[in-house]
Amino acid sequence: MLYSRTVGLPVVTLGEAAELGTVAGLEMDLARGRITGVRVSGRGRRTTVLPWEVLHALGADAVLVRSAAGGEIRKEAVPKVMGLRVLSEDGEERGTATDLAFDAEDGRLEKLLTDLGEIPAGSVRGFGDYAWVVAST
Amino acid sequence: MGWWVWLVVVVVAVAALSGLVLWLQASRRSGTVIAVRRGGGRWGAR
Amino acid sequence: MSALMEAARLSGRPVVTLDGDAVAQVKDTVFDGPAGRVTGFTLSGRGLLAGPLRQSLPWTAVHALGPHAVMIRGREVLAEPAAVVARKEAARGRVLGARVLTDTGAEVGVVLDVVVESGISGRVAGFLVSARDAVVPGSRRRRRKVYLPRGETLAVSGRALVIPAAATRFTADDLAEFADQVAAYRLRDEKEVLP
């Protein structure tokens, strides 16, 4: 699954088929190499983070969640993932991030896609407000 | 003179002032290369 | 050998943590003249309204000096300004514009820039000098820009720096050629040191 494809998908509860909102972005833990949650857009800039554990399915057309409980409200904007520059640990630019591929079943990060090629998730060191940082070589 | 003359004067003054502030801060951010001496080459010659 | 870069161009380069956050940008590059090593950087904030920061980056905290960013482990490695350069030293040590003299007393020219190695070495490779043709062979114009190996620079101050006369035989016109000349100069150095 691609990060860009998930953004904008409706988030629907499994029991009541209630639409909670749309996917604004994904939360990730690079050290563990996983997607840890889904940020659901609400009113204004405010988003709710639903942990990966409450997801039932992340499909091509919708995200199904077991419940909206356990959602944590975030006020800060969703960080930019695509279009962000990629830097090596040596401080050399390695193009621009175009997308992020992950396993929709278990949330494992697979690879970072850039305009210069693919970088395996294991080589990704960090992701911040300025750049993606990847291992050198 | 119409009131708009003062409006133009104020707008120009604000633009000039903010331009000056931005230029001043940019020059305060820019730097140079500084040579110091730290105990006479304790790392060796090269 | 790692790529060479001009220190004056480092000014404005972002300081980025391994977590991808830009925490500052380089203001001044500070180097130890006798040791020929970068000792650290003074810092400015990023953004249009930012000025100098009350923080500095000692070389020991640098993860890598790259062509597009100075990488650090995290925000916590930044130190107080005096850890890199004291205010008095900063005023006295501005090396751009200083005269370059050889140890035989000839004037080579004026320092335009200081050339440093990228990566983790922090080595100063040499200087970009606006040279007088009397010292640098083969130049037509009266003054031209040449790269000079540091050699074992004997003295550096904001006024002048003294380099071995032999270093003027290893000039280069661009950074790529300069890397070879620095290597050649070092080889020559080792031959002379060995009995």
UniProtKB/TrEMBL annotation, chain B:
Domain of life: Bacteria
TM regions (residue ranges): 6-24
Keywords, sorted A to Z: Membrane, Transmembrane, Transmembrane helix
Record protein name field: Uncharacterized protein
TrEMBL record, chain C:
Domain spans labelled PRC-barrel: 5-75
Domain of life: Bacteria
Pfam families: PRC
Record protein name field: PRC-barrel domain-containing protein
Native species: Streptomyces griseoaurantiacus
